[in-house]
Design goal:
The protein has ten helices and five strands, in the order H-H-H-H-H-H-H-E-E-E-H-E-E-H-H. With about 325 residues, the protein is α+β, with helices and mostly antiparallel strands. The chain has one domain.
């Protein structure tokens, strides 16, 4: 993986380079039986249960035995919270909030809209949002959470304000939809219906990059299970839209421990292989079995202290 520095807000030039790199790769060999549209009958993709699991239920990388599923859905134990989880949520929230707000401002200011106006409005809207962060992310240092959220928000505002002006310079003939399409090739929190393969109807992949690339942001160490996670979203997408998703984009974000540190972004073009798809489906079926038979799978050999069920699980 190569570091791109801070910007993990894809602009068209960055996205075009990624798509060109994918195009130059050999055509992937993904087994037909592991495509999401093969959900009917007795297939590997067909769910053994219709219990609506989220992708994160399956690939959160906390418990290899899936005991968190048993505690949450069978015993009704409320998920705890940790500073690591809150840092991850803050990054995801800043990413989505900033893009959604930018688009809303373009709609509001159009047709008298330009990059400077949108950027100024973005900065004005930031302060009241920062005031809400200490309550929403109470396990993080309040100044750190404000600094990190602000850093991500301002980066988004700078990148897409410049993209907006570039889009306007290309042609005077545009409407607000085409202007936004030329400026921001990103749909954050893109909804996917996973019900046909035993997942929730309201899945949300971190971002959908035009013209057809799924993107997930990870703030923990790289792991093969995250490739399986992206494969899970691809399976759900294929089951809904009957369109193949061969590659995805995993964006690993290394967060600074202190204010003023460097936030590094490592994007990885990820082939959604048959192995990754198989791993996801096996983990899905394991968790469906736990729910169906309501059996305690027991504790794993090692439990990460970052698990939101760590304190409860130790006592049971």
């Amino acid at each position: 993986m190569r570091c791109l520095g801070l910007p993990f807000f894809p602009a068209w030039d960055t996205l075009t380079r990624i798509l060109r790199e994918i195009h130059e790769k050999p055509e992937p060999l993904i087994e037909e039986e592991l495509r999401g549209w093969n959900w009917r009958g007795e297939t590997l993709v067909a769910p053994s249960s219709n219990f609506p699991l989220g992708v994160s239920d399956i690939t959160n990388n906390f418990c290899e035995k899936g005991r968190d599923i048993y505690l949450r859905y069978i015993l009704g134990v409320k998920q705890g919270d940790t500073s690591i989880l809150q840092r991850g949520r803050l990054v995801h929230q800043a990413f989505a909030d900033s893009i959604i707000t930018f688009k809303r401002l373009v709609y509001t200011l159009y047709p008298r809209v330009d990059g400077d106006k949108v950027y100024e409005n973005m900065i004005e809207l930031l302060s009241p949002i920062l005031d809400t962060l200490p309550n929403r992310f109470n396990l993080l240092d309040s100044e750190y959470s404000k600094w990190l959220y602000s850093k991500i928000w301002k980066q988004s505002a700078r990148i897409y304000s410049a993209e907006l002006d570039e889009a306007k310079s290309r042609t005077p003939y545009h409407n607000v939809e085409t202007l936004l399409s030329l400026s921001i090739p990103v749909i954050p929190e893109f909804p996917i219906d996973g019900s046909l393969i035993g997942l929730a109807r309201t899945l949300r992949v971190d971002a959908y990059l035009l013209p057809g690339l799924l993107m997930e942001i990870k703030t923990r160490k790289p792991s093969p299970i995250y490739e399986a996670s992206l494969a899970g979203y691809a399976l759900a997408y294929e089951s809904q839209y009957y369109t193949p998703i061969d590659y995805g984009l995993l964006v690993y974000v290394t967060l600074p421990k202190e204010i003023g540190g460097e936030l590094r972004v490592y994007p990885k073009i990820t082939l959604l292989t048959s192995d990754a798809r198989t791993l996801f489906l096996e983990e899905r079926d394991k968790r469906h079995s736990i729910i169906e038979y309501q059996g305690d799978p027991g504790k794993p050999h090692t439990c990460p202290k970052t698990c939101p069920y760590y304190q409860v699980c130790r006592r049971m």
